Amino acid sequence: MIKSIREFLRKINKPAFWLAVMILLQSLVYVGAGASKAYIHMDEAYSLALAQYDKIDITDNADFYNTWHTSEYFQDYLAVQEKGSR
Questions:
Q1: How high is the pLDDT of residue 59?
Q2: Is the dihedral of CA 75, 68, 50, 83 positive or negative?
Q3: What percent of the chain has pLDDT over 90?
Q4: In this structure, are residues 58 and 64 in contact, taking their beta carbons and an 8 Å threshold?
Q5: Which residues contact 49 (CB under 8 A, 6 or more apart)?
Q6: Alpha-helical runs (H) found in 13-83
Q7: Could you give the CA distance from residue 76 to residue 61 in angstroms, rounded to a whole number?
Q8: CA distances, 39 to each of 1, 12, 13, 25 (Å)
Q9: Measuring CA to CA, how many Å separate 36 from each of 25, 40, 41, 51, 83?
């Protein structure tokens, strides 16, 4: 038993072991953070919309300025558009 403990202590005393432990912990933290993300930041939403919307910018719409818009207006901007609708 003591021999196996000594072997184990010798193995964990190596830098490669601690590097592997750190990489594993960082990976778990990144996966956990990504899985629990419940919102997107504004620049992510803008990039998504640029890739999906039929105009380059939502402000190009004639009714954008001086008009109150409901959430559906912006949800349409952020929604994934069908391939043929562009």
A1: 78
A2: positive
A3: 16
A4: yes
A5: 58, 77, 78
A6: 15-35, 42-52, 71-78
A7: 13
A8: 51, 40, 41, 24
A9: 17, 12, 14, 24, 30
Tens of pLDDT along 71-80? Answer: 887 777 777 7
Would you state the structure tokens that stand for residue 6, as one six-digit string?
């000594």
- At residue 81, the pLDDT reads 67
Q: Is the pLDDT of residue 42 over 60?
A: yes
Structure tokens given for 52 = 């999906």
Torsion sign, CA atoms 37, 73, 81, 42: negative
Amino acid at 58: I
